[in-house]
Specification:
Helix content: 40-55%
Distance between the termini: 35 Å
Largest sheet: 5 strands, mixed
Number of helices: 13
Strand content: 5-15%
Structural class: alpha/beta
Order of helices and strands: HEEHEHEHEEHEHHHHHHHH
Radius of gyration: 21 Å
Strand order of the largest sheet: 2-4-3-5-6
Shape: globular
Amino acid sequence: MSNVPPTPSGLRGAVDLSSLVDRAQRPAPQQPTASGTPGTSGTPGVTGGDTGAALTVPSLVIDVTDQSFQDVLELSTVVPVIVDIWAEWCGPCKQLSPILEQLTAEYDGRVVLAKVDADTNPQLVQAFQAQSIPTVAALIGGRPLGLFVGALPEAQVRDVFEQVLQAAEQNGVSGRVSVDGADAPVDTAEQGEPEPEPLPPHHQAAYDAIEQGDYATAIQEYTTAIAQDPHDQMAVAGLAQVSLLDRLNGRTADDIRAAAGNDPADVPAQLAVADLDISGGHVEDAFGRLLDLVPTVFGEDREALRVRLVEYFELIGAEDPRVVAARRRLANALY
């Protein structure tokens, strides 16, 4: 799948994102207070130094913008920061975000969650190379680390958190933060944050099935939800994503790419490697691979390519410019 386990070597080789902020135009850093650095909007300010020390922040879950990102970079020298790139219209994002927030609370100040709205922060989207959402990354000591793309079950997300903490410790980032006004870090319920709205019954059943690795049941639940409401875009996106997981389940990336390389005209093999590209966030590669094939095949093969591309369009989002361009190219090839 698209998980990229964090490793110290991968971390040290990452690109420093601090160039996003024009340091020359920023005032000299001030000592952080209980409510963060003066001049920020609820985002904690951090000074360098002892990464084992505790720090007080307004919340363990913070909203980050292109303009406030410098503060998060500084915070990542104290604790690892999980970065969630999401959008309001993204169905899988709504499944993943509550998991990220719950785990952040459970880790009791050892990590902070930074939420980035992809629609309003294009600079950060580009910096993290977020080709589809949700995209989840980490910041450790000011350096970014790609983690995974798409909504994952809680157990897998928890494993990713553990790997991030291990990488952070190996890189000397092992501090802890507490929430402003509390003697110790508290969970989201104690902070009075509203509970996330419950998912519709078939969505919840699908989500529970995904968490257990039962993709067939999840597909059935999403299909039922769509039959009941054809305009349920969250179910359409969920069905596309779990279908992708089901097709990739039990197959290795090496085997998939080898089969596609051995026979470029083999439509099922090319569909499989396109799935792999999508799962890794390589949207344009997947689109291009299948669109190049469409004019060369007919009948069932052409229909299979069309159906898979339409599924990808639902997964990525109709308003994504890559989808708009690919949809236009597909229409020209078919008609």
